[in-house]
Design goal:
Rossmann fold, 7-stranded mixed β-sheet, globular, 30% strand, alpha/beta
Amino acid sequence: MNIRIISGEFGGRKIEAPDTDKTHPMSERARNALFNSIAHHIEGAKVLDVFAGTGAIGLEALSRGAHDVTFVERDRTAQQVLAKNVTTLNVENRVVIARTNVENWLTTRDDGLYDLIFADPPYGDTQFSTVSQLFGLLKPNALMVLSHPGRGEIPTKTGVVVVDNRSYGNAYLTFYRREDA
């Protein structure tokens, strides 16, 4: 299965997605709407893409002008596809691939705060307790976008506010902003 990078430097280029149910790549329609809504946050951004899967979200951010992306992915098949996609687009010097689960990565990371965080945990295991720890990695006024399977309970934290909610088929996106520190 292939996924198309929608816009920017790599617009129209195809990347791979594993033929497995362990990843659930965001639809092109949802990705396009997402990136159109956050366009002014991307240029020069330091991006974190956790539960990265194919890397489509982080690679779309790079294509649209992000400075660099850190990907965190635990599944070996997804890691291999992600690494191949990074090589296909020749962006090895702009990415870091952490081959571990998010919880472990959070205890060992040392690379500062982020302008933009994308979190797309498995729909069968949303790991909201782990996801809520990501709020601490946001720079002041930075955004985090959480993809989740429904309108149910979502993680919250003092100092981080929900600024938008959108739904695209079975994907719900919640947008958080860290208030000025």
